[in-house]
Every structure is written in structure tokens, then in C-alpha cells.
Amino acid sequence: MGRCEYVLAKDSVNNKFEIRQVNEACENGKFSCTKSLTVIFPTVTIQLLRGSVVVGGAEVDLPVSYGGVDITRSGVRVTLVDSDYGVKVEWNNVHNVRVTVYGRYIDKTSGLCGTFNRNPEDDFLTAYGATVGNAVDFGNSWKTDSCCDNATDVPHPCETYPGKNATATANCSALLSPPFNVCARQVDPVLQGYVDDCEYDVCGCGDDPTVCLCQAIEAYVAACASYGVSIDWLSDDRYQQCNSSCASAPCCNGGTCSNNGLSFLCSCPPGYAGDRCETE
């Protein structure tokens, strides 16, 4: 996706929910990452920012509830929105977003997450009601602001940066071996695209692929957890860097992170300021 706000998923029949995602430049500035989410229900609108939650224009402390909508922390940094509307949103405050909708929404959803009708052939249904074959055209149709620049086709980053191929292959193939292979029957990392996505992200990262690798692994581990398979990977010496402050990608708007003891420092690009480069 590009660097706009997009509709991830919505109830296109009864308008019971809508989930939007804002993207920003990440790592080397050539690709986009999640900056924030907006979760809209009939009774409340919730904005999820990195490290904070805003309702009605004011930051709120968690846990908190609003008439059948619960907002909590799950684990160290995952923000969880659960609701009586049959919709659940999980965000690890970095790159990974998971949207779960219940069976009541079969044949009723649209957006970047696709249609929920057991027919993968029309998952690229645009906001205009046409099915397209190109992911970029599909994504651009779900922008919430038509004035925002369209995303364009870009080469695979492993083709653009061939020198990173070996690193990406070596790091991402770890999903096929212990401790991750205990989940292979439930979530096949090859057939379901986790290895390919990992290689794409690691090649697309800047000089240090730590954040992208950690996020790719965390996405797979989260998928396994949804099937009841728990993977203890952060205790493995190979992934200790994923416990660092910078592994959570705290710097916004293309800022560069450096670890500072148990915290971090952000070096902001021109035009941005703040502890996280969040102010333009």
C-alpha cells in the first residue's frame, strides 16, 4: 500500500463497523508501514496510535470499555479492541494488524482484507464494485482521500537490492525449523506466504533488517497463537535483538532509531520533531 489512509475492512451491508489504516514511510523510506488505525462502531470511534489510544479526541488509559467495546493491552505491546459487534482488532503497535470478524458477516464485508464469502476469486473487489487483478489498483481504490497520491507498482525489493537476498533467505528460512516448525501443520509458513513476506520485508528494510525480521516472525507466531500453538522464541539467543527498544519501531515518519539503554533515541528526518518524530 501507499502512504494514505485505507479501509481495511467494513460492514458494507449494515455499517456496523469500519476499520481504517494510515500508512507512513518506514525504514529506508521506499516502503510503507502502519502508522495508526481507526476503529469505527456505531457507539464509539477509536484511534490507535503507536503507544497510545485516543477516544473523543482525548488519550485514554487502558483497560477501558464503551458500551460493549473493550480496549485492552494483550502482552507487552499489543492493543486489542474486542466488541459485541462481532469484530476484533489486534495491533502490535508496529507493523502487524489482525482483524477478525465473526460468521454473522459472511457475504457482508469489503475492504483491503477482502470479501468474507468463501470465494477467493473476488477478494480484489474494489470500492467501486469491480473485481480487478492488480493489487495496486485494488489498494488505491480503498483510499479514504482521493487527493492522496496513488501507490505505484514497485519491483520486489530482493530484485532491487540483490545483495540482501542471502541474508533474507537465511533469516526467513528459520520459520521452517525449531522452534517455529511445531506450528507447520496449523500454519504452513510457505503455502500461506509467511516466508515470502519475510524475505520481502527483510530485503526492503534499511541497512539493519532487525525490525522487519522481528515483525515478520512475530506475525507468524501470532497466527500460530490463533490456532492455540504457543511458540517460545524470544528466549532464543538468536532473537534477543527482538527484545530491544528499537525492535518495536518507535520512530515515526522515517525516523532512525538507536537503542539507548532500556529506551531509544529517534533521529528525525528534516521537517519532523518529537521523541518519536511524530510532529510535523
TrEMBL record:
Which Pfam families does the entry mention?
Answer: C8, EGF, VWD
The reply to whether tRNA processing figures as a keyword in the UniProt entry is: no
Q: Which domain of life is it from?
A: Eukaryota
Q: Is the keyword Electron transport in the record? A: no
Gene Ontology MF terms in the entry: calcium ion binding
The chain's disulfide connectivity reads C268-C277
* Keyword annotations of the record: Disulfide bond, EGF-like domain, Glycoprotein, Repeat, Signal
Name of the protein: Hemocytin
